[in-house]
Structure formats: structure tokens, C-alpha cells
Design brief:
488 residues; alpha/beta; Arc Repressor Mutant, subunit A; Aspartate Aminotransferase, domain 1; Aspartate Aminotransferase, domain 2; eight-stranded mixed beta sheet; three-stranded antiparallel beta sheet; 17 helices; 15 strands; 40% helix
Length: 488
């Protein structure tokens, strides 16, 4: 029998059986005892509380007499479901004393829209959403094997210990040798921090590097969560426009403490920052002492040509901060990412992280390290990239056929297509009407910083939708778009 929450005060003047009766009644009212399961027997409860069985029997007898519990022969004593409402009413508490909204801290990002994703997205037949995966593509067998191996020697200690603020050294080494080298990045063990997703990396950097007197430049349109995180530090956030070659660089970044970029596949437009602009960004950032954060969230998904080198790989000073994640390929639910930066900064970020979450779960860290070391990770990545390329090719062709405007060619990478419709298309309405047809897409206006953003942009993700559902989903989406345009 699991332990109950019943306790008795042997120094009280109230008889023990009365104390037991009162606590049981309260537990019934608050739902601690499930009416479908029997209450602890007098023998079990007497043993737990170290009292005589007669004490428990007296308490139960009073409850039986009042009809709060029922005795079923050979089954035991159960809560009387007919009495639950009456008991709960007697236990009702008065109105809260604390005015909670007035006590809550207010942040500077109030009024900034949030990215809203339906929790039941997987129940829709055509989920064209970014940030989720097709669960059937997850390498479950390899992951289970790694999880199991991580619980046995010599890995159990790394999996199960409280490492205080340290990361799994094997995972750090795998990232250093197997992940970063593919991006042309060299880093020491003390220059890598494991994070609970790349978003935690952004939060740690914001907390550590920014304050109310700092200015931060972000892409416009850009990653909305980064905007929230930076605003919450009190920093002044401004937008830098994006075109077909990526970030439109200003003449100088003087006065800007930090600039945040997604150069491989710009979020949300997917354009790639040109090589000329990459080099110029590093030059003007170095001249003004501006910190550059490179969020390389899905560089693995390049479908034509060769991936561009990471900004971090081009940085001769080592000052660029690099964010990576395993969410876009493996699973967003695993919440694992990493951050690369100067050793002295990583040391401080580790200390800040310690008082947030201590450290990412050791078991998942070691399992991921073993999966990478075995080769299973890269085998699964190659297979998943082929799947995503097929979907990208199919979606790119269908977008031209089904949507009533011509946007091709699309950037050859990423996990979504950024669509810019005619000026008279209201993509907010499109999202709502498409959902009625079982099609989930994402509105694009929320990614812009201006107060009156364009409403004709939307995002079509293809990481979560099964390949077989793409064609029908695009036809339905196109029909909805045509109907909306015809009404205008």
C-alpha cells in the first residue's frame, strides 16, 4: 500500500481516532482518495501510524455512520460518491487574500504576440507546421538502445548522478568531434555548454550579457521567441530588414551591444546569408565591439548545393557565439541543444544555468552521446534528410501549382516555405479558414517588428506532415486561398 498523507499529533488533546477521522474526511473532500479504489484497511493504516487497530476502526465507524464511506463485503471500505459534493462544499475555502496579478512581475514584452501552436496538431490530417516532427521518422529503436545502454556500466554514473553544473563529457566530446567539425568549427571542451534546447541558450545569454542600457539588433522578420527573450532583459530591441540575400547590413553596428542572426536558413524566410555579407557582418561587428549570436538551428537540412560555412567558422577572433540544437532533427520534446563560445563566458553561463535547472538530464545526455558515437545518429540524419528533401521538392512544386501566385524558386533548405501572397491576401484569415479544412499553417505577420506588419505572409512547414498527405493538403489550402482572394 502506498503511504497516505495521514498524520497524528500524539501531544494533542484531541483523541487519535478523531484526528484520523478528520484527516480522512478532508482527504475525501479534496480528492486525494479515489472513489474507485478502496481506502486503506484498518490493519494497513494502524501499521503506518503505529496506533491500535481499534483507533482506526473507531474513525471508520464514525465515517460509516455519517454515510461518508461505504463498506463492501470482502472488498473493503470505499468513498461514498453521493456524499462527495456535500463534503466538498463544507471544505470550500474563502476567496483568496492575495491579488496575484498585482504581485506578478511585468516584462517589457507584454503586447508582443506569441507563436501559438495547437497542442493537438497531430490530430489534424494536414499539419503544415514548423517546429514539430513526424513521429514516425524518429529513430526509436536506436534511441531506446542508447537509453538502455546509458543505464549500465560504465555509463550509469554519468546518467544518474547530480553533476551540479557539469555537462556529460562524452556528449561534449561528441559535439566537438562529430557535430561541430561538419560546420567547420573547432572548439575545446571548456568552450561548449549543453542546454535544454537552444532557447535556453538564448535565455542564458540574455540574462548574462544584456540589461536596460543595451541595444539589440534582430532580423526583421525574425525569430519571435528571441525577441521576447531579449525584451525581457530590459534591452532595447530593433529590427534589421532581411532580403533575398539575408540580413541587410547597416553601415555600422556602433551602439549595438548584440546582434542575433540565423544565417544558414533565416527564420522564418529560409534565405541564406550571402558569403559577402557574412564577412562584412564579422568585420563591422568586430569594429564596434558587437557580440554576434549565430543560431544555426537547422543547417543539416540543405537540399541543393553545399551548406555555407558557419559564421563561427569564419570568425578569426573566436567571439561569435554559436547555438545548435537537436530539436529539428531528433525531437523538440528531448530539449537538448548546445552553445559554443569563449571559455570564460561558458564558465559564467554554466553558473547561471546551475541556478535555473542545475543541468540537463544526465540520462538523455549520455544516451545522445552514445547514439552519436555508435553512428546511429548520422545514419538516422542521412535518412531523415532524404525524406525532407523529398517533401521539399514535392511541396515546392505543389506550391506553384496550387497557390494563385508565382513565388518559385524557393530557398533550397530548411523545414518550411515562407509564402508571400498578393497584397489583398489576408493570411490571418487564410490560417483560420484552412484550419476548418483540416489544414494547419502559420501566420506570418507576428514575425515582423513594425506595429502594422504585412498580413499577406504565412509559413508552410513540412517536418511534421506525412509525405502522403502533402498533395491533398496543398490542394485544400490552395482552394481556400482562391476563395478568399475571389471575395476581395
Amino acid at each position: 500500500m502506498p503511504r497516505t498523507m495521514i498524520e497524528v499529533d500524539r501531544g494533542s488533546n484531541e483523541p487519535l481516532y478523531r484526528q484520523v477521522r478528520r484527516v480522512i474526511e478532508h482527504s475525501i473532500a479534496t480528492g486525494i482518495f479515489d472513489p474507485r479504489r478502496r481506502l486503506p484497511s484498518s490493519r494497513e493504516l494502524a501499521a503506518e501510524l503505529s496506533v491500535a487497530r481499534n483507533t482506526i476502526n473507531l474513525a471508520y465507524q464514525e465515517l460509516l455512520n455519517e454515510g461518508l464511506v461505504l463498506s463492501h463485503e470482502r472488498r473493503g471500505i470505499f468513498v461514498n460518491p453521493e456524499m462527495l459534493a456535500a463534503v466538498a462544499a463544507e471544505e470550500a475555502v474563502s476567496e483568496p487574500v492575495i491579488d496575484w496579478p498585482s504581485r506578478m512581475r511585468r516584462y517589457a514584452d507584454e503586447g508582443v504576440p506569441d507563436v501559438e501552436k495547437r497542442a493537438d496538431w497531430y490530430t489534424y490530417p494536414y499539419p503544415f507546421i514548423a517546429g514539430q516532427i513526424d513521429v514516425h521518422s524518429f529513430p526509436a529503436t536506436a534511441w531506446i538502445r542508447s537509453l538502455r545502454e546509458a543505464l549500465y556500466q560504465p555509463h550509469a554514473f554519468a546518467s544518474l548522478q547530480d553533476s551540479v553544473g557539469a555537462d556529460d563529457p562524452l556528449l561534449v566530446e561528441m559535439i566537438r568531434r562529430e557535430i561541430l567539425t561538419a560546420r567547420g568549427i573547432e572548439a575545446g571542451q571548456d568552450e561548449i555548454l549543453i542546454t535544454v534546447g537552444s532557447q535556453q541558450g538564448l535565455d542564458l545569454l540574455g540574462r548574462t550579457l544584456l540589461g536596460p542600457h543595451h541595444r539589440v539588433g534582430i532580423e526583421n522578420p525574425g525569430y519571435l521567441d528571441a525577441r521576447h527573450i531579449f525584451l525581457r532583459t530590459g534591452a532595447q530591441v530593433y529590427g534589421i530588414n532581411v532580403d533575398q540575400d539575408g540580413l541587410c547590413l547597416p553601415e555600422t553596428l556602433s551602439g549595438t551591444a548584440l546582434v542575433y542572426v540565423t544565417p544558414s536558413h533565416q527564420h522564418p524566410t529560409n534565405v541564406t546569408l550571402s558569403m559577402e555579407r557574412r564577412r562584412r557582418l564579422l568585420k563591422i561587428a568586430a569594429a564596434s565591439g558587437t557580440i554576434v549570436i549565430e543560431d544555426d538551428y537547422d543547417s543539416e537540412f540543405r537540399y541543393e548545393g553545399s551548406p555555407s560555412p558557419a559564421l563561427k567558422a569564419l570568425d578569426s577572433t573566436g567571439d561569435v557565439l554559436y547555438l545548435g540544437t537537436f530539436s529539428k532533427f531528433l525531437s523538440p520534446g528531448l530539449r537538448l541543444g548546445f552553445l559554443v563560445g569563449p571559455a570564460e563566458l561558458i564558465k559564467e553561463l554554466r553558473r547561471v544555468r546551475r541556478y535555473q535547472v542545475r543541468h540537463p538530464p544526465g540520462h538523455t545526455q549520455r544516451a545522445l552521446a552514445l547514439m552519436i558515437e555508435s553512428g546511429d545518429y548520422h545514419r538516422a540524419l542521412r535518412y531523415h534528410r532524404r525524406q525532407m528533401k523529398t517533401r521539399w521538392e514535392m511541396l515546392s512544386q505543389l506550391a506553384v501549382e496550387c497557390l494563385p501566385w508565382d513565388q518559385a524558386p524557393y530557398p533550397p533548405g530548411g523545414v518550411s516555405l515562407w509564402m508571400k501572397g498578393p497584397p489583398n491576401l489576408d493570411a490571418v484569415e487564410l490560417v483560420s479558414h484552412a484550419e476548418e479544412q483540416g489544414v494547419l499553417i502559420e501566420r506570418g505577420d507576428i514575425y515582423y517588428l513594425q506595429s502594422s506588419p504585412p498580413r499577406n505572409c504565412f509559413r508552410i512547414g513540412f517536418g511534421a506532415i506525412p509525405t502522403r498527405s502533402i498533395a491533398e493538403g496543398m490542394v485544400r489550402m490552395g482552394d481556400v486561398a482562391k476563395e478568399l482572394l475571389a471575395e476581395r
